[in-house]
Amino acid sequence: MENLKNTLIEAAKAGAERAAFYFNKKHQIINKDGVNNPVTEADKASEKAIFEVIKSNFPDHFLLSEESGEIAKDSEYKWIIDPIDGTINYAQNIPICCISIGVEKAGEMILGAVYNPFMNEFFLAEKGKGATLNDAPIHVSEQTSLEKSCLATGFPYEYIQDPNGPIPVFERFISQGIALRRLGSAALDLCWTACGRYDGFYEHGLIASNGLIHNTLVDIISPK
Question: Do 188 and 131 share a structural domain?
Fold first, then answer.
């Protein structure tokens, strides 16, 4: 496990170095399938750096990345990677974005890392050992009142007209005066929930590279 964790940390930092290099510059932006689904040269460079670290240590592991999709291997270990979560923020030079990587063993998430180099915040979680922010233990909020909570959400670019989609649910919250924030990075939203800055988080339609890794952070440290 220690070698896995060290590789995870090294990979996240390698991706972050590439993201930081391209930050606050004019970007080459390509839109993927759907609306407002961009990818920049920094996403690709971050992914390449992450892949190089993982493959040099664990060449036989399965990789799933938001940009390249699956690199399938017959292994019980799967790395789930978002080389830059919050790409729209990143492309606009808004420093609320991050590198996020998780490690799954036999279908169970066992490690997760989320690194925002622009705020110098490194979140790390290990199954059975809790989670940390810059090596200090973190805990979820103790707030139990929905009315007094500060929540986070994200708006996907699908499901907008769904009667139980993001807009109707958002309206129900704000009509009750509940504080809601929408910062544009599901990874950081969940990490900020994990460390108690937010009292809760919800979002429609999160994909694996956004949801699974960061749910690990919250699940590991949530009171049972």
Answer: no
Give me the domain span that covers residue 211: 146-221
Number of Cβ within 10 Å of residue 128's Cβ equals: 7
CATH number of domain containing 198: 3.40.190.80
- Which positions make up the binding site? 66, 82, 84-85
Annotated binding-site residues for Mg(2+) read 66, 82, 84-85
> Which domain-ending residue is among 105, 137, 169?
137
Angle between helices 208-221 and 186-194 (to 10 degrees): 0
> pLDDT tens track of the chain, all 224 residues?
789 999 999 999 999 999 999 998 876 766 666 555 677 898 999 999 999 999 999 999 999 988 788 888 889 999 999 999 998 899 999 999 999 999 999 988 899 999 999 999 999 999 888 899 999 999 899 999 988 999 998 877 665 566 667 777 888 888 888 898 999 998 899 899 999 999 998 887 776 555 455 555 555 545 44
How many domains does the chain contain in total? 2
Identify whether the C-beta of residue 71 lies closer than 8 Å to the C-beta of residue 53. Answer: no
Is this prediction's pTM over 0.70? yes
